[in-house]
Design a protein that fits this description.
single chain; alpha/beta; Rossmann fold; 7-stranded mixed sheet; 9 helices; 31% helix; globular
Length: 336
Amino acid sequence: MSQSFDIAVIGATGTVGETLVQILEERDFPVANLHLLASSESAGHSVPFRGKNVRVREVDEFDFSKVQLVFFAAGPAVTLSFAPRATAAGCSLIDLSGALPADQAPQVVPEANAEILAGLKKPFQVSSPSPSAATLAVVLAPLRGLLDLQHISLTACLAVSAQGREAVTELARQTAELLNVRPLEPAFFDRQMAFNLLAQVGKPDDQGHTLLEKRLVRELRQVMALPSLKISVTCIQAPVFFGDSFSVTLQSSSAVDLAKVNAALEAAPGVELVEAGDYPTPVGDAVGQDVVYVGRVRSGIDDPAELNVWLTSDNVRKGAALNAVQVAELLIKDLL
């Protein structure tokens, strides 16, 4: 591709932002000028890109008319503050925070619903969904023609990196304290995270559901274009630095043909099917990889219309940064 583009990344010093910049380089994204932006606290740091250290600047002072595309890899408040400025300057954006409504910035997972990009108008506003929704959509997309989905029930075992660098540091500190027989003093988490499981990620509402759980349900329905699909979800915090894992039960209206399911998963883009009798793990398989690993594919014990699977993927790389870059690749190929 001969054309190149001026790009900005907001949240460039965070775990997702740094990985996004790395993937732009790895995939030889046609970047002419790269602008790295963050809060005033992070301005002045540098991030490596194509053999150089690119200085991070303060987002408050940035002129969005300098770029054609911006990635929002910070929190929802940052997106809500600066997205209007970006679009007013004619800049297209890809948001990873979940802050923008679907009618304004539709959720896109290239392996599942890339076709909706064709209906957008410049400047483009697109959302890259939560890593959990993106991971599940990659696996569910090739099964749409095989299963008449009635209900999805899942338990999401989430890595602490989903909550940022501070959470990663906290898990490392707690682990060191316990291994060295020192008193444990939780800081980021409200209790011991190391060698433990926490039954919720974030504060629950009056009905007991967290914002992350509700976001996952909303985004998965949008990406799969199944607005009435019944989804039950529990997100738990696992003592893992990187790599989310999911135990998923899919309820169909008729008996599941396992041979066809396995064949569909084997051929699906973005999916690595593990052979029967084996299973993938986040640390041994998924971390640092660009696919979703699928294993333990089986029917229900007493219900042939039930399908059970185990999934794992790198939440920062595959679920967040790579998905956003893949969306950008589609935009520059067909639309920008």
